[in-house]
Amino acid sequence: MSTATLTPAGRPDGEPAAPAPKGRQRILPPPVTGQEMVLIVVIALLWLALSLATPAFFTSGSIVPLLVGMTPIALIGIGMTIVIITGGIDVSVGSIVMVCSVIVAQTMVGSGLPLPLAVLLAVAIGGVLGLVNGVLIAYGRVHAIIITFGTLNLFRFIGLQVFDSSTVEGIPRTLNFFGRGEAGRTLGIPHSFVIMLVLAALVWWYLRHTAGGRHFYAIGNDQQAARLAGISVRTRVLMAYVVTGLLAGLASCFVLAQGTSSLAANVGSGLELAVIAAVVIGGTSIIGGRGSVLGTVLGALLVQTVATGVTQLGWRSQLSDLFVGLFILIAVGADLIRQRTRRAS
Amino acid sequence: MSTQTTPGTEPSAASGSTVEPTAGGTESLPAKVLRILLTQRIALLVLLLATVLITMSQLSANNYLSAPYSTSYLAATLINAVPLVMLGLAELLVITSGRGGIDLSVGAIVSLTGMVFGFAYGEWGWSLSTAIVLAVVFGGLCGAVNGALIAYLGFPALITTLATYYGFSSLALVVNDQRPINSQPVQDLYSTASAVSLPFLPEAFPRIPLGVFTFLIPTALVVWLVLARTTYGRRLYAIGTNDVAAEWTGINVARTRFTAYVAAGAISGLVAVVTVAQFASARPDSGVSGNGMALPAITIAVLGGVAITGGIGRVAGVVLAALLIVWLNAGILLAVPGNAGSQFQLFALGVVLIFAALLNGFSNRRYGGTS
């Protein structure tokens, strides 16, 4: 069974392997899967169409907010991808972002926390909340969606308790380093986007090229088999939720940086659905065992492009949700068709 | 979502049911009571409900609460149970149908159908009964979109209903340019949400909101009849338990599952009417604002003993779970006045849900399966 963790050839994930280089047999799926290629083409077409329709689209004043705006969703999406690959789900991420951002915001208002400490604080809180999810799911033996529905309420309660009044006012601009303004860019490239890309690349490599990373796929495909193959299922599942919590903590810094000097109590609400949408559009199977972080990043980019495009075309901004819904259905439909043709062949 | 986080549960549960005596003459009384409480979700809910009612009445008697926790107060809060129970029943149907069945879009269907109902009744001057029929049909159509994708095309339910959640809520906002409909006929509907005193009952009997009789009880009765007394109900449990086995016994699995989603949509359409009446206005975000209506409904269903893996679930469990949450919330509002009260409601909901779920997992391993 140990080969199952190393060779995904038997899984539907494995596109027919490209001719392997001599001397070393490669059984990994190609680095860019079909869904991701389609996404790249769709995004390219959208950008082309938008730049033709509105000349303002391809200016830095429009692209930078787009790239910065997608980072919270993409960042949490990285963790959510791992969680969904193991066959779980985490609907509490919006509440985690809320708790982290309100505590960090209040600490910054109260004590003028410097940037590194603020990030550390946010990530630490996110990690602890992720740990709560992970422990309950890995050791409580309850389906992830039920536990995270519960912690969604619990975390929101904690956040509202910390909020005390309905908003936090006068947040200092400490986090501007991650913002969409001048302070958030080097050579015109937003820092938050680069940080997100680096983290995504790390996780992508880890999931694809290390034994530990393949364990997540094994768990998602067949938990029982994974356990019998000697994988520590509980530790891996726990890890997935902690990583998601950590990333949600970091994402809350980005959310704060993009916001104004006041923070309302509805921060992060509905974020979990946007993140799950990005992950699914990116080709990760909700049943588990299949997916990649690259797809998630592309999915987040697509969602943000649609939102930007709808606004720039002067359409009603609520329409973008309709397109997101359609894209989800198309992505899942395309995935189903590919699976069926693969099974038939 | 068909994969369980803990496949270890399954085999141990299966073996447990053969090893453990199900009804033992050797079992002592406390052990028997414990087993019933752990394996019968309804018994547990009744116990919890009694605990909440007794505790709150005690607090009320000792003047710890800001207002008396009286029967008339409890009856008045039942208006909150109407949408909760009905959507919980919608989730019951859908989750029971199995293969990761779930419906995240019920809140969005409530929003969109509410707007359609608002147009028909408030703007086009339809009569109330035809407008209600329209709402039910329209909700059913929304559910049919979910059902067709999930049952016939094999889309995963969680993702499909997430997509339609986006679609329906977006349409609800766009259809009237984000404005609510509150013309005179819609405002007059508010009277249906008011309390009535029942005929044939003594005057001292608390006044119960009319919506309980016009919407909640009929819906609960119909769902119960369908699930417990018709072949369709048996088929639904069968496909939820094992849809391959159901297929081999000659059940039309796809159509049975499709019908469950259509029914969930139709119930959501009815909830839309209730919500419009309750707010005296058709609001474009009525079902999705805040946490929305779908998450509480799923929570209620799970708390009521509906197995997220399908095939298990009872109407009585959902109704009791909703009563527990509504009356617990009502007590919390009196014990912790103001904004903090609504925050503690979130806390209570989360704790009760996780507690019930962990207990479920435990009793599964200890006794093998709950009913």
UniProtKB/TrEMBL annotation, chain A:
UniProt region (Disordered), positions on chain: 1-26
| Coarse class of the protein's main subcellular location | membrane
Which keywords label this protein?
Answer: Cell membrane, Membrane, Transmembrane, Transmembrane helix
The answer, when asked if Transmembrane helix is one of the entry's keywords, is yes
GO terms, molecular function:
transmembrane transporter activity
Q: Which residues cross the membrane?
A: 37-57, 63-84, 91-109, 115-137, 144-163, 183-207, 237-257, 263-281, 293-313, 319-337
Q: Which cellular component, as a GO term, is one annotated location?
A: plasma membrane
InterPro entries documented for this protein: ABC_transp_permease
Q: Where in the cell is it found?
A: Cell membrane
Q: How does it sit in the membrane?
A: Multi-pass membrane protein
What PANTHER family does this protein map onto?
A: ABC TRANSPORTER PERMEASE PROTEIN YPHD-RELATED-RELATED, RIBOSE IMPORT PERMEASE PROTEIN RBSC
- Specify the protein name: Sugar ABC transporter
